Amino acid sequence: GLFLPTGKASFSASMATAPAPPPPPASSLSAPALPSQSILPTHVSLSRPPSLSSARFFTSVGSPGSLSPFLLPTRRAGWCWKRSRAHVVVSPRAVSDSRNGEACLDPDASRSVLGIILGGGAGTRLYPLTKKRAKPAVPLGANYRLIDIPVSNCINSNIQKIYVLTQFNSASLNRHLSRAYSSNMGGYKNEGFVEVLAAQQSPENPNWFQGTADAVRQYLWLFEEQPVMEFLVLAGDHLYRMDYQKFILAHRETNADITVAALPMDEQRATAFGLMKIDSEGRVIEFAEKPKGDALKSMMVNTAVLGLDEERAKEMPYIASMGIYVVSKDVMMKLLWEEFPQANDFGSEVIPGATAVGMKVQAFLYDGYWEDIGTIEAFYNANLGITKKPVPDFSFYDRSAPIYTQARFLPPSKMLNADITDSVIGEGCIIKNCTIHHSVIGLRSWIAEGAVIEDALLMGADYYEIINRDGVQEAARETEGYFIKGGIVTVIKDAVIPNGIII
């Protein structure tokens, strides 16, 4: 597809075989899909002052066989360039675009928002996956790691200053972040960064991180130095795609002190979450942690207030906190240093406390796929959810909001006489004479003749045969190299399973 500039940039094109389409609306990121072999631009002009720093996506346009294409910026274009008689074949879209218009922040998020990603606790519910790594470093979707989700959401939302707070088994996480992002965020007059802040002891505080709020408090002296308006507090173990600019815009438009991302819920799921009650303007007035019975009924709200249509609002009359917050900078200082200097957790202490002392806590509705990867079952289901058809639970095939990760420079995967259905295969795999169905195969996997893999998640670089023959639900066999939780067999990292073993 051909990306066109949006916003205030003007665009004009003369067409060789068809009249020029009207310029796209300001809220559109890319042009509508065009018929293949039909539009041949011959002249392009862009009229804005020279500046390349804020252009994000480019498309290459040139004559057939030409080695000197020119670039069209697609977002906040800031330069002028003209060229004549450029020919291109525009093909229909092959992948999705999730962005349906963008929020316009002033000042923009790159200069006014600091992202703070919390690495999480020890991850005991994800053990043994967390035996040698932090939760956000757990592999995801064959090629990625969980931490890639919030970092990519930040980058796609033009948030370029990002800190990641870590404490447990952080070596693997630190290495991944360094390799994936350290050389890609900076540059001349671009102060972007992704930096790791590890838990540390100091003369003022001899303790490690005691919780989410305490982790932020211990580094508040550093965050205070950033010339920003808001802090965006995120979790490092959630799977979702979100444009944080709309989240931040809602925070500014409502003049809120804190804005909490909220997920609409039906009654069946609501009992497993911390719920919020709102007034007619979306302001949070009450919190309840995993309520049941009458307490649950009392937390019903009109979710149409936050933007759901009437029919879905009736189906989902509850809103749950996603553990994602926009907090004004001065408010964060006051809350953690003055109002609640001993509080350790945002969700159970600081946010309800802010409501209690009269601060304006606003809810922002997120009506999309979201999963907290907190247990082995949730991790397994989230990974296999990307194999669903015709539409996966979460898609990595989105060109306007891609998920970034470490460039490993692996060769393409090779399949030799293999029968593979409803599966996702990572990079660098060699798969020969086997059957794979409804599975996710991680990078560098070698699957040999005769193997049968169904409903399985292989995280890569392993060779094993696993069958839960007796349907065991729970078993701790760490000395033998595996655990079973909820009927899901998890092989420990670097474990050796002898040939012929049937689990």
Strand elements, count: 30
- Report the β-strand fraction as a percent range: 15-25%
Parts with pLDDT < 50 across at least 5 consecutive residues: 1-21, 23-94
Supply Rg.
25 Å
- N-end to C-end Cα span: 49 Å
* Main sheet: strands, sense, barrel: 9 strands, mixed
Structural class, by secondary structure, is: alpha/beta
Number of helices: 12
Percent in helix: 10-25%
Global geometry: globular
The chain-level mean pLDDT equals 78
Task: From the structure above, extract its key features.
12 helices; 18% helix; alpha/beta; single chain; disordered N terminus; 503 residues; 9-stranded mixed β-sheet; 3-stranded antiparallel β-sheet
In short:
The protein is α/β, with parallel strands linked by helices. The longest helix has 11 residues, at about 170-180.
Task: Report on this structure.
This protein has 503 residues and is an alpha/beta fold. Strands 6, 9, 10, 11, 13, 14, 15, 16 and 17 form a 9-stranded mixed sheet that branches. The two termini are 49 Å apart. Residues 1-21 and 23-94 have low confidence and may be disordered.
